[in-house]
Fold this protein.
Amino acid sequence: MVDTMAPLHGFTRTSRVRGRTAGPTPPVPVVLPGDDEVLLDAPDDVLGPALVGAADGDHTQAAGLLAATRHTRSWEHRDRYARRLAAFARARPGWLDGWRALAPRDPDALLVDAQRAVDHAWDSPARAELLREVSPLITAAARGDNRDPVPWRLALDHARGARAGHTYFEELWEAAVRRAPHHHGCHVSALRYLASSWHGAHRECLDFADRAAQDAPENSLTQALPLRAAFGYLTDGCGPEVPRERLEAAADRATALSARLPAGQSWPAEARNLLIYVLVRLERRQDALEQLRLTGPYATSFPWDRDSGDPLGRFLEVRQEVCAAVASGSPTAGTGVFVPASGRPRNGQGGRFRFGDH
């Protein structure tokens, strides 16, 4: 395969995959929150008040929150907050429209508005045409604060949706990593672009993800990028088979990251929910149970919405199955039989999942 994204590959070194402890982990009693205590996509203690204020038509809390992430360069939190606020603004736009009218050049308002516009275009049958109209908003957001990588993550998403060529995407990528070399959101966007451009090239996607994770700091969410690539393989129905060892290594790296992140908090929940999904697919139910303990009452729509229109219900169903398997001493509770590529799951409509669209 021709390597058309050399700058992406050149940015990261070859990965040295971490090994995992030999043998299954012995079962230990785990007490999980009750089903009625589990929350779907719950905001953290900082985002919650901003959403409450927005519901009342007041943008002040959201403005203060995003300004703080800029001043402290908390780019991962900024990215997550911008996404959540943009999603809220699609249903309740008044507070954001008012904020934009009062402060048309505010970099935080520009970012949320650009994210809202990209999300709206992405869901439309006229995606390509609408995305072209969104470009000036993304440019304005990027100029709002030259240090901020999040508008460049948006630009990468925009380029993927518009089916931009590799040369243009590489230029955006280089601009993004100059600002934040290990920003998780930008790396996820690049991985999605590779997955959609080279559909079925899961080994190449894992190579890119492994190198990025190898260079990332220990507590960076980019450590979980190989898990994203493994998920892409497990939920896709094409391409050559990937050795099980590579999928195990991706899960092990994400497990090590999870152990370093705080337990029972909402902001690491998506990474842990994805890890649970992959561990279950690998029949590592004891390991999945430990991640269920760490995530506590926090379920996230992704990845469970890949299997069901009721992601919370699917999360609870999987949780129950994992607990039952571990309690019964099932031989597949710790490690087990891998579901081969030919048996990868399909969505409820019978079509293949498209990793590049999530």
